Amino acid sequence: MANNQNDKQLQDYHVSEVQYQRILVAIDVDDFTSSDQAFNFACSLAKLYDAQIAITTVVESKDINIFDSLSPAKMDDKRLEASHCLLTYVKKAQEFGLTKVKPILSEGTPDKAILEEVIPSFEPDLVVLGSEAQKVTGKTIGSQAEGIIEKAPVSVAVVR
C-alpha cells in the first residue's frame, strides 16, 4: 500500500522553481582552498537570482596559544586581519557584478557563531560552505561543516 501511495504522490508532484533572495557564504581566512569554490558558487547564485549575499568569517580565539591569548593586541591583530580579508572578498564580489553585498565578522567557534549569531541576524535562504581542503590549526568553517549542516534552520550547500 505504501508503494501505491508513494507512486500517486510522485505522479501528482510538479517541480516548482526555487528562488534565493538571501545567500550566506562562510569564508575561512586560514584556508583559501576550501573557501574559493564556495565563494564562486555563492556569488554565481547571487548573480543568477539577483540575491543579497552576506560574506562571513569567524575569528577563532581558541586557536592561539595561551601566551598570545593573554595579549589583547594579538586578538586585535587577528580581528584586523579577518576584517581585511572579509573586505577583500566583498570587493571581489562587487567586481563580479554583485551590488547587494554585506560583510559579517563574528567571533568564537565557527559552527556556534554561524548558527547562533550570523544565521539569525542575516536570515538567509541558503548557507554555502566550503569543505576543509587541508588540515589547519584550530576549528575552521570547513571542519565545522557537518555541525552547521545538521543544525542549520535553512538549506546548506557544501562545495568542494
What would you note in describing this structure?
InterPro entries: Rossmann-like_a/b/a_fold (IPR014729), Universal_stress_UspA (IPR006015), UspA (IPR006016). Belongs to the universal stress protein A family. With 160 residues, this protein is an alpha/beta fold. The protein is 48% helix and 19% strand. It has a single domain (16-159), classed as 3-Layer(aba) Sandwich (Rossmann fold). The protein is built from six helices and five strands, in the order H-E-H-E-H-H-E-H-E-H-E. Helix 5 (110-122) crosses helix 6.
Total of DSSP H or I helical runs spanning 4+ residues:
6
Largest sheet: 5 strands, parallel
**Which CATH class?**
Alpha Beta
Beginning-to-end CA distance, first to last residue = 40 Å
> What's the SSE pattern?
HEHEHHEHEHE
Q: What is the correct CATH architecture?
A: 3-Layer(aba) Sandwich
The count of DSSP E runs of length 2 or more, i.e. the number of strands, is: 5
Radius of gyration: 18 Å
Helix content: 40-55%
* Coarse structural class: alpha/beta
* Average pLDDT reading: 87
Sheet-strand content, in percent, reads: 15-25%
Entry keywords:
single chain, five-stranded parallel beta sheet, Rossmann fold
Précis, in short:
This protein has 160 residues and is an alpha/beta fold.
